[in-house]
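check this one:
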Amino acid sequence: MAETEQKIPLPHDVLMTDTNGYSILAKKLFEHTGIFMDPCEKNYSLMSNRMQKILRKYNCVNYQDFIIILNANTNNEAKEDFYQALTTNTTQFFRENEHFNFLKAQMPTIENYLNTERRKELRIWCAAASTGEEPYTILMATLEALNPLNNIKVKITATDINTLVLEKAKVGVYKKELLESIPAGLILKYFERNENTGEGFLQIREKYRCMIEFSKFNLNAEGYFFMNKFDIIFCRNVLIYFTPKAVEEVIIKLSKCLDKKGYLFIAHSEAIMGDKNGLKSVAASVYQFK
């Protein structure tokens, strides 16, 4: 039996001109994730770059070949590869650090509320975990701000739609240059070199990795169901990819996941207009459940 001929995908600049194929793939991405990719040159280029590896893997020349595979609805791996290729975004430690300064300032108030409720667990949800920089930053900032005498346990739920980035986050190994925004004292406390790290890499210490539960979650889901409500939710630098209608729907669902007086942090570029959905603005891109 003759081997299947390996096809070569169209060059990047040619693939960029297939606006019809782009529109079909962008629609599929939106329907599954809620992420909206505007039809513009920047996104044509982004789609083409990220699809090159996928097209090679599935022996496709162009978008249309891959769309046939998706429409056949028999290859779940192809669907997952597609969604994951288009949902990997830039992240970093202590991004928009003003939020963590605000969190530190509010921690005594949060601890007093927990004591009033006779609860010793601070529940936090990082709804766009990516490769882990965000949830580990939240963990470090929270632990440093808490009064150890109160013996409050920190429980962080970290989710993302992309399982590949979640696997990286669970391992918690990072190049040293990615840690430049972290104070030296925190690097010594929270990171280590061990048998899992090569030259130029550090890993989050196991005792801290165990404080975060990573799992797959789609913000485009109809409802958000968790065992408990959260005191703090971070959902930053993901809503910018959603349509205004989808953003409104996500904010409503996030607000329903907040405990009394809970805080919602979104990115500075994603600010909500006015107080609504039971939320009031208390700082730049920070909202509190009334």
Summary: The chain is about 40% helix and 15% strand. The longest helix spans residues 98-116.
